[in-house]
User: Fold this.
Amino acid sequence: MTARVIDGKAVAAGVRERVAAEVAELAPRLGREPGLATVLTGDDPASQVYVRNKRQACEEAGMRSIHHDLPADVAEERVLAVVDELNADQRVDGILVQLPLPDGIDQDAVVDRIDAAKDVDGLTAASAGRLAQGRPGLVPCTPAGVMELLREAGPPIEGAEAVIVGRSILVGRPLSALLLNANASVTVCHSRTRDLAATCRRADVLVAAVGSPRLVEGGWVKPGATVIDVGINRTDDGLVGDVDFDVAREVAGAITPVPGGVGPMTIAMLLSNTLAAARARAA
Ligand code: NAP
Assistant:
């Protein structure tokens, strides 16, 4: 069996088109464009690129981008004051503080200062708590993108055995709550999991979010399973995921490539979250 390759670029483009159409409808009712504020600290080139791409995508969707650039030696109080300003700013629907923050700044304190109603990255303890309790709220963008791809892949999530490799706050943990809320039976694996291969082999839905090139071997995949590869690893062969794609695609029913799978979904879901935040604030 050769798996269907899930086209994350096409799914992301669909989400972005839907968001742009809904923004065009919502803006006249709001009397303004929905606004996404980004806060960038320091001069890390990768972070600069991520923020630039997010701002550009936001403008392409017809939303307003508001940006704060802060120096690497900025004091924590100043970052908190910027977040407070953005919390109070009626033109701002979503706030994204690009991580990591410079050494010496308490990242949790800064993230938790974001008003949960504007938490479009879904990383505050308040948003995580709502998600864990199965209550509505803003959800981290990468796991939200994984759920969109799973819906696109076809087989029902309800009743499925889902295995996630990785338990980070950014991906594995929120994804486990999303899958549980969608009525999957969820197992979360990590570096201390005893028999990773056997656990993965049980999965109807297998998600790898580790950061270890081609860790998941073809023999770990249950025939016909849906495999979602969140990993992005730079190697001598170029960008590869956490799944051994060439082998796994011969076993799986559907699989995401790297690049072109989960990656494009993250920004699309950020736009979708900003639209949702603008709608909820207008209601
Ligand atoms: P992370 O915070 O480093 O977490 C990695 C997780 O993998 C940890 O829970 C760790 O276990 C587990 N792990 C490490 N080695 C393992 C092993 N040998 N066997 C089983 N589990 C193992 O990483 P992350 O932020 O979740 O990111 C994971 C990957 O996704 C990275 O490649 C990252 O670049 C990528 N990513 C992509 C996107 C996107 O937009 N596509 C977004 C975010 C992240 P412990 O908890 O026990 O240490």
